[in-house]
């Protein structure tokens, strides 16, 4: 068994993917440590089932707000480098897994200085994510420095070929990594799937004559590029239809105030759309999703959405819900393969509204939800992705143990 450090660039808890990966590793007997940010000034160290969390020591003399800014996981951060380096040496770490691009270069430098292989867990296309912020005109002054898409692209070109292995969440992301110079045999899909223990049977269809409004859930960031505004516009066009819809929007985000204003300007009241804000418990958020009848993914079909896959796609399917999704490449491919939902043209409220109408019939919703349920049981579950993860970990550790990894490869 090995001593493994997972480098996470935000506060912990919680993050679904971090928790799943680290639980899988600790469940196999590995000694897991998690490096995290600490904007909340939580205890420096805390033990969870998935591993021991080591938070960035706060600079209390600056005050919490300034300290939060200075703890930003910038591509080149001496503060983060020292934090990861101290943990690596103190706990005699044998393998580093770094999550997403901001701290990848830092992790690579620490790994190289200690002769330790580094795996890059590329949960999303980070440069494309930053482009979304700028294209929707939602950038802030500090973003010119810390969230610059061109800088991110340069860092990506540097990091991807230098990681020993790259974990991606979907085949489209694998193609992106290979295009960035990573050898095909070093890129493995470990997707954002739920464990089988979370899979729920689709609810039996309600009577076809029911006048109850269709309950639609969205779980994710409240941002313009996530298409939430398009969802609100579609809800407004359906407001006068029978039986109509009711939205349940779960999550926080930089555009939440603007989206609340948009809902009001469209004439949507609190009984038309419920904004729950950020919910710190994934289990609590899933309870709201499971009480709905349809799950929606309104993301713009841009470079970011076309090279990632949202957790919520599989969460909806596991909860026994049919899925409404924009035609971003990965979601469209999976829904067409499985028949687990309906697609609409991205950024098109009328197309979204038409797709909602197609799922107004309870019997059709149940049929579609059943297909999603079967797809999760057969393929899209964490136990399968966990095995892919373990195969990569065991392969790298075996190479390290036999001395087959050269300094350059590390």
Task: Please characterize this protein's 3D structure.
- The chain has about 400 residues and is an alpha/beta fold.
- It has 2 domains: about 5-195 and about 380-400, Rossmann fold; about 195-380, Glycogen Phosphorylase B (Rossmann fold, 3-Layer(aba) Sandwich), CATH 3.40.50.2000.
- It has 16 helices and 14 strands.
- The strands form 2 sheets. It has an 8-stranded mixed sheet, sandwiched between helices.
- Helix 10 links the parallel strand 10 and strand 11 (about 275).
- Helix 1 packs across helix 16 and helix 3 (about 80-90) crosses helix 4 (about 105-115).
- It is globular.
Name its key features.
410 residues; alpha/beta; Rossmann fold; 8-stranded mixed beta sheet; 16 helices; 14 strands; globular
Could you give the topology of this structure?
Blueprint: E1 3-11, H1 16-27, E2 31-37, E3 45-48, E4 51-55, H2 64-70, H3 78-90, E5 95-99, H4 104-114, E6 118-122, H5 126-135, H6 143-146, H7 149-159, E7 165-168, H8 171-179, E8 187-189, E9 214-219, H9 228-237, E10 245-250, H10 256-265, E11 273-277, H11 282-290, E12 294-297, H12 311-318, E13 323-326, H13 329-338, E14 341-344, H14 349-358, H15 362-378, H16 382-401
Parallel strand pairs: 1-2, 1-5, 2-4, 5-6, 6-7, 7-8, 9-10, 9-12, 10-11, 12-13, 13-14
Antiparallel strand pairs: 3-4
Distance between the termini: 19 Å
> What structural category do the secondary elements indicate?
alpha/beta
Q: Count of helices?
A: 16
Strand order of the largest sheet: 3-4-2-1-5-6-7-8
Oligomer: single chain
Which fold name fills CATH's third level, the topology of the largest domain? Answer: Rossmann fold
The second-level CATH architecture of the largest domain is: 3-Layer(aba) Sandwich
Supply Rg: 22 Å
CATH homologous superfamily of the largest domain - what is it?
A: Glycogen Phosphorylase B
The number of domains is 2
**SS strand fraction:** 15-25%
For the biggest sheet, the summary is: 8 strands, mixed
Poorly predicted sequence stretches spanning 5 or more consecutive residues: none
What's the average pLDDT? Answer: 93
Q: How many E strands?
A: 14
Inertia-based shape: globular
Helix content: 40-55%
**CATH class membership of the largest domain:** Alpha Beta
Element pattern in H and E: EHEEEHHEHEHHHEHEEHEHEHEHEHEHHH
